[in-house]
Design brief:
Blueprint (H helix, E strand, L loop, with lengths): L1 H16 L5 H6 L6 H12 L2 H14 L5 H4 L3 H17 L5 H9 L1 H34 L3 H49 L2 H12 L11 E2 L2 E2 L7 H19 L1 H8 L4 H17 L1 H15 L16 H9 L2 H39 L5 H26 L5 H25 L5 H24 L7 H25 L36 H16 L4
Antiparallel strand pairs: 1-2
Helix pairs in contact: 1-9, 3-9, 3-12, 3-13, 4-14, 4-18, 6-11, 6-13, 6-21, 7-8, 8-9, 8-16, 8-17, 8-18, 8-19, 9-10, 9-14, 9-16, 9-17, 10-14, 11-18, 11-20, 12-13, 12-16, 13-21, 14-15, 16-17, 18-19, 18-20, 19-20
Length: about 550
């Protein structure tokens, strides 16, 4: 089944290659994709290692509190992207998020953002590669380094061939493969532990009742929940800074919406993705909880078990699934990691080629030159990702590692963007100083935590407080520096700042976009209502 799957992946790459005539085809699919395709690709690009291995690890370690990463930490930000941010992005016709930074603030913040994004993306690509290696090593017995290189080779092949179109079409296919692989695991796992009632009893015996509630133990001054943070830190750190920073400014995700065929499709992309995102916890977090209940302290490395929380899903697959279903599950896991890495690589090559190479190194070259550079940079990105995979191997919980990277790179960028979008007085020097200090501040917090782990209850809590400190640093210094420096003329801010100029969100609409069930406002409202409804059983 794995061989067949890899064959289909490469076949899609060759098919997509026929449509790649220009750099815009390679990097943004010629802005031709329908909303349902980009919506599924949007959620599939997120279903990489951080989602499957990382969220299952969180399920084993933190229990049902992991729901916060979906219901506070994802869907509201996805709705905000579709309803508020996407008109600015798509309306300005920028080719990347860093290019929007260039339009709003100028060259200095732009180059810093482009470099920071490129660094963070190859680090995150390494996480997906490492997760792939875990599964291949566990299931096929290959050495970790062999698994990393082979996995990277297949991702490199189909991205180099077909660019973003290849990634998107594969991500749509991978979405269904992932679901087909994880649903049986959840069903069989729940059956083995005696259903939901048996799972809750087992979790209470191994971990404690706080792992079965989302908000219990989050009172200020009375923190007993497994995340180790109070409700204010969860809402502000995860639900606002980290969540909005990731979903609204991370080009790896936003790129899928940029490839949509018109404004309506671009706005609906994250809103369509929000609905499957709401139900992903049931096939990711619950298996993690089952692994935590069944394996107990083994996942924490007790008794020299050789296991950690990242092994929750692979170990559960080994224990519970028969050979035929095992093939589907393993293929689903490989699909998820390939989707995640492909998203990282395709956004990395776009930003490097357009925002660094074309803008500062070799401007005004023929389009064919940038298409060629894009393919070369793809190779470089994958090779660097192989190196960073071994960095990810040092983390016991790759989700915590990922959140640490987000607090370094996404949190300060969101601070700069939100202040720049809402306040026309914000200046270029303010954006640069705020952004740099916003990266430095959480780095200092993280180093302080490494030197003194008593500063925060858990590593997860450190990422939340680090993100809040980063965002606050950006806002404070952004305002202070803006007040003593000269802003851009208002005429240069049209369509880039809220309330200045008018963005036409209906100008490129087609007849079917006006149907009531395609209304972005309706889709966003329903998604938020479902968020609240899914919280209620686990309060």
């Amino acid at each position: 089944m794995i061989i067949i799957y890899f064959g289909v992946v490469i076949g899609i790459g060759f098919t997509a290659r026929r449509r790649v005539k220009t750099s815009m085809d390679f990097f943004l699919s010629g802005r031709s994709m329908p909303a349902w395709i980009t919506g599924l690709a949007f959620v599939s690009a997120n279903l990489g290692a951080t989602e499957i291995i990382g969220m299952a690890a969180n399920g084993a370690q933190l229990g049902i509190t992991t729901l916060h990463y979906y219901l506070v930490g994802a869907v509201p930000a996805m709705v905000f992207l579709g309803l508020v941010m996407m008109p600015f992005y798509y309306g300005s016709k920028v080719r990347s998020v860093p290019e929007f930074m260039l339009r709003r603030f100028g060259k200095s913040p732009h180059i810093v953002n482009s470099i920071a994004f490129s660094v963070s993306n190859v680090l995150i690509a390494g996480i997906n590669l490492y997760a792939m290696a875990i599964v291949i090593e566990a299931m096929l017995g290959w050495p970790e380094w062999v698994a990393i290189i082979v996995s990277a080779g297949f991702v490199l092949a189909y991205i180099t061939l077909g660019g973003l179109s290849s990634a998107i079409y594969n991500e749509v296919m991978q979405f269904f493969v992932i679901i087909a692989g994880l649903v049986p695991l959840t069903i069989v796992g729940l059956h083995r532990v005696g259903g939901w009632g048996g799972l809750t009893k087992a979790v209470e015996q191994t971990s404690g009742v706080q792992h079965l509630s989302t908000w219990v133990g989050t009172g200020i001054g009375d923190v007993t929940n497994p995340i180790g943070a109070n409700w204010l830190a969860i809402v502000l750190g995860l639900g606002f800074v980290l969540s909005f920073g990731y979903w609204t400014t991370n080009f790896t995700e936003v790129q899928r919406a940029f490839s949509a065929k018109n404004m309506s499709a671009a706005r609906r992309t994250p809103l369509i993705a929000a609905f499957p995102k709401l139900f992903i916890p049931f096939i990711v977090v619950i298996p993690g909880m089952i692994a935590g209940a069944v394996l107990g302290n083994q996942l924490a490395g007790a008794n020299n078990s050789g296991l950690d929380y990242n092994d929750a899903i692979p170990k559960l697959i080994q224990m519970y699934l028969p050979s035929g279903v095992l093939g589907v599950a393993v293929t689903g896991l490989l699909a998820s990691f390939m989707a995640g890495m492909a998203a990282n690589v395709s956004s990395f090559n776009t930003v490097f080629t357009y925002d660094i190479w074309q803008r500062y190194i070799r401007p005004k070259m023929p389009d064919s030159h940038y298409l060629h550079i894009g393919r070369m940079v793809t190779i470089i990105g994958v090779l660097v990702g192989i190196g960073t995979a071994f960095l990810a191997a040092q983390a016991q919980n790759i989700m915590t590692y990922m959140q640490t990277l987000f607090s370094f790179f996404n949190a300060p960028l969101f601070g700069v963007f939100i202040l720049g979008l809402l306040w026309k007085r914000m200046t270029t020097p303010a954006a640069l100083v705020g952004y740099l200090l916003g990266i430095i501040a959480p780095t200092i917090v993280w180093i302080a935590y490494l030197l003194n782990p008593d500063l925060f209850a858990t590593a997860t809590a450190e990422t939340l407080y680090g993100a809040i400190i980063s965002f606050g640093t950006v806002i404070v210094f952004g305002v202070l520096v803006s007040l003593v420096t000269k802003p851009k003329p208002e005429k240069e801010l049209s369509g880039l700042v809220y309330g200045i100029g008018k963005i036409d969100i209906h100008g490129d609409a087609v007849a079917t976009d006006t149907k009531w069930y395609r209304s972005p406002a309706l889709l966003g409202t329903v998604a938020l209502v479902l968020c609240v409804a899914l919280y209620l059983p686990f309060l």
